[in-house]
Amino acid sequence: MSNLASALRRRRFLISGWPWRSLGYLLTTAVVAAPFAAVVWPLGLPWLVAATDVRAGRFPDPPVLVLMAVGAALLIGFGPLVAVPLAALERRRLEFLGDRPPATAHLPAPADPIAWLRLRYAEAATWREVLYGLFLAVAVPAWYGVLGLAALLVAGFLGSPLFAAIGAARFQLGPVEITGVVESVPVALLGLLLLAPLAYLAGLTAAGQRAVAHALLGDGYGTDVREVTRSRARLVDAFETERRRIERDLHDGAQHRLTSLTLHLGMARVDLPADSPAAEPLTRAHTQAKELMVVLRDLVHGIRPQILADVGLLPALRELAAQSPVPVTVVGPQTVSRPPELVEATAYYVASEALGNVAKHAGASRAEVRVEWTGDLLTLQVADDGRGGADPAAGTGLTGLADRVAAVGGRLLLATPAGGGTLVRVELPCRS
Amino acid sequence: MPELTRVVLAEDGVLLREGLTGVLARFGCTVVAAVGDAGALLAAVDAHDPDLVVTDIRMPPAWTDEGLRAAVAVRTARPDRPVVVLSQYVQPEYADALLATGAGRGVGYLLKDRVADVAEFVAALRAVRAGGTVLDPEVVRRLLRRSGDPLDPLSARERQVLTLVAEGRSNSAIAAALFVTEAAVGKHVGNILAKLDLPPTEDTNRRVLAVLAYLRATA
Question: What is the pTM of this model?
Answer without folding.
Answer: 0.59
